Amino acid sequence: MTGEHELVELANAKMYYGKHQGKYLINVPESYLLWMKNKGFPSGKHGRQLELILEIKVNGLEKLIYPLIKK
Fold first, then answer.
1. Domain spans of the chain?
2. Got the DSSP string for 5-71?
3. pTM attached to this predicted model
4. Measuring CA to CA, how many Å separate 36 from each of 7, 21, 28?
5. Angle at 49 between CA 23 and CA 11, to 5 degrees
6. Span 5-53, pLDDT tens digits
7. Phi/psi of residue 48, nearest 5 degrees
8. Within 13 Å and on the Cβ side, how many CA atoms surround 60?
């Protein structure tokens, strides 16, 4: 189960490569995440975060993530 600190970390994680480099993962378009899923998410933590963000978007739960972004 994901803890609160992990959700805060997920909310503040950014894309570190590609055409959406520097964007918060929650702001990466769902279509791009689906494309990545079909290609295969990268291994490791970043790949797991991308996969979780896709699940959040598919289920319409983005509004739960936005308040956790540190300004």
1. 4-68
2. HHHHHHHT-B--SSTTTTSBGGGS-HHHHHHHHHH-PPSSHHHHHHHHHHHHHHTT-HHHHGGGS--
3. 0.89
4. 21, 14, 11
5. 55
6. 899 999 999 999 999 999 999 999 999 999 999 999 999 999 999 999 9
7. -65, -40
8. 0
